[in-house]
Structure formats: structure tokens, C-alpha cells
Design a protein that fits this description.
mainly alpha, Tetracycline Repressor, domain 2, 2 domains, Arc Repressor Mutant, subunit A, 0% strand
């Protein structure tokens, strides 16, 4: 048996390495979402994970590499939440998106801080990752929304614009809500959103008429 495959306490070398990586990622989520990325050090990560520093560099070359991994996991969880709803009309699709976003942010304040605040302005690399993930969610949401509206399909450029508008507006609402300590209550905020969208749609129809 090779050294790589030799079990230790019932686990192979690769299994132990994977477990250490998961400990580091969990520590990254916790510290980036509480202390903040800019005040977190490799030493603090390792202390929280209960590991020697050499094990950090076994999995990540830099703290920014860890942030990329952490953010990838956070955004995957958020994406699943905001796109979990269905709907056959625009209002239902949009309400499902915002319900998922608000509920996720309130239930996961540590992860929400990573997404809403800690990844902003870190580096050009992280900025591009942030924009890319926003575009992915925006494109999926715009596609769902446009499918509920009769008429000609949007062009790729129009769908990108719609996705940016939807994600940008949703993000601003959630940031403002989190900073305001989740006030007004979620359901009240959703009702205000529904009423506002109704007003916008009515104004648009009046203008067309």
C-alpha cells in the first residue's frame, strides 16, 4: 500500500487532507463573516480551525484564495435560495426571488456579511468573481421573468440589462434591510414591494394607454 493510501485512524491521507481543507473553509466563513476579511489573518484562521499554519498552505496559497472558495460556497447557497421559487406571472417570480434573498440573509447573517460587504473592493479578481456571479443569477432570473410575459423574446443584451436591474435592485433592498437590523419585518417589506410593483405596472399601462 502506498503512503498516500495508508489509513490513519481509519482515514487515508487524502481524506485527512480534505477534512483539514473543510475545517479551514468553515473557519474562513466564520471569521470573514464576523471579524471581517480585512482583519482576518492566516494565523487566526488556523487557530479557529485548530490546525497548524502549514496545513493552511496545504490547501490555499493565499488568504484571498480562501476568500474565493468561501465566496463560491456562499453564493451557491444564496443562488439556490433565490431561485427556489417558481411562478407563472411576473409578480410571483419577483416575490419568490426577494423572499428567498431576504429569508437567506436573515437566517445566515454571517454568510450574508461575506456576500453583501466583505467581498467588495478586495481586488480586481474578487470584483470580477462578484460581478460574474451576479450576472449568472441575473440571467437566470431574467429568463424566468421574461417567460411569464407574452410577446417577443428579449435579445441577449436586453436580458442582460433586465438581469442587472433586478439583481441590483434586490441587492440594494437587502443591504438596506440588513443595515436597518431587519426592519421593517420581512413580510411587511414584501408587501411594500408588491404594492410598489403594482404602482409601477399601473403607471406603465396608463402611459401606454
Amino acid at each position: 500500500m502506498t503512503d498516500q493510501g495508508r489509513p490513519y485512524a481509519g482515514a487515508s491521507r487524502e481524506e485527512r487532507k480534505s477534512a483539514r481543507r473543510e475545517q479551514i473553509v468553515a473557519a474562513g466563513i466564520s471569521l470573514f463573516g464576523t471579524m471581517g476579511y480585512r482583519t482576518t489573518t492566516v494565523g487566526a484562521i488556523c487557530e479557529a480551525a485548530g490546525l497548524n499554519k502549514r496545513y493552511f498552505y496545504e490547501s490555499f496559497a493565499t488568504l484571498e484564495d480562501l476568500l474565493c472558495e468561501v465566496y463560491g460556497r456562499v453564493i451557491a447557497e444564496l443562488r439556490a435560495s433565490v431561485l427556489a421559487g417558481g411562478g407563472d406571472d411576473p409578480a410571483t417570480v419577483l416575490r419568490g426571488f426577494m423572499t428567498g434573498f431576504l429569508s437567506w440573509a436573515q437566517a445566515n447573517p454571517v454568510k450574508a456579511r461575506v456576500h453583501l460587504f466583505e467581498v467588495l473592493g478586495v481586488s480586481a479578481r474578487i470584483d470580477e468573481l462578484y460581478r460574474f456571479q451576479g450576472r449568472v443569477i441575473g440571467d437566470e432570473l431574467a429568463s424566468r421573468l421574461s417567460a411569464t410575459i407574452p410577446g417577443p423574446d428579449l435579445t441577449a443584451g436586453q436580458q442582460r440589462v433586465l438581469g442587472n436591474v433586478l439583481v441590483g435592485a434586490g441587492l440594494q433592498m437587502v443591504v438596506d434591510w440588513v443595515i436597518s437590523e431587519y426592519q421593517p419585518p420581512r413580510d411587511e417589506l414584501l408587501e411594500e414591494m408588491d404594492a410598489t410593483l403594482g404602482w409601477v405596472l399601473a403607471a406603465g399601462l396608463a402611459a401606454l394607454g
